[in-house]
Amino acid sequence: MPALNGAFGPFRGNGYEVLDADLERSRQLAIVSADPMPPQLGDLFTVETRGVVHEVAVVQLACFEGGWSALCRVTDVF
């Protein structure tokens, strides 16, 4: 999972942050959220990044006080 550091700023208005710097090489991205309700392993998200829509599945999940982070793998590209 991409490392979180002190430079991680406040969440956007939707409460989610998508970390996708290595998406093209690894076919993975991380979603970090301030939402108290975490997803489950296998849940699907649709993420638009760099003008491309990706369907991703949660493969790893970590919960922390005030939110969660999920490592997701690309399952389809539209």
Q: Which blocks of ≥5 consecutive residues have pLDDT under 50?
A: 3-8
| Proportion of beta-strand residues | over 45%
Approximate shape: globular
Would you give the CATH topology?
Thrombin, subunit H
Order of helices and strands: EHEEEE
Query: Mind summarizing the main beta sheet?
Result: 5 strands, antiparallel
| Total count of helical runs of at least 4 residues | 1
Indicate the topology.
Blueprint: E1 16-19, H1 23-26, E2 28-33, E3 44-49, E4 52-64, E5 67-77
Antiparallel strand pairs: 1-2, 2-5, 3-4, 4-5
Verbal overview:
This protein has 78 residues and is mostly beta strands. The chain has one domain (16-77): Thrombin, subunit H (Beta Barrel). It has one helix and five strands, in the order E-H-E-E-E-E. The chain has one helix at residues 23-26; strands at 16-19, 28-33, 44-49, 52-64, 67-77. A five-stranded antiparallel sheet has the order 1-2-5-4-3. The longest helix is centred in the N-terminal third of the chain and has 4 residues, at 23-26. 12% of the residues are buried. Mean pLDDT is 87; it is low at 3-8.
In short:
The protein is mainly beta and 78 residues long. It is 5% helix and 51% strand.
Task: Give short descriptive properties of this protein.
5-stranded antiparallel β-sheet, single chain, mainly beta, 78 residues, Thrombin, subunit H
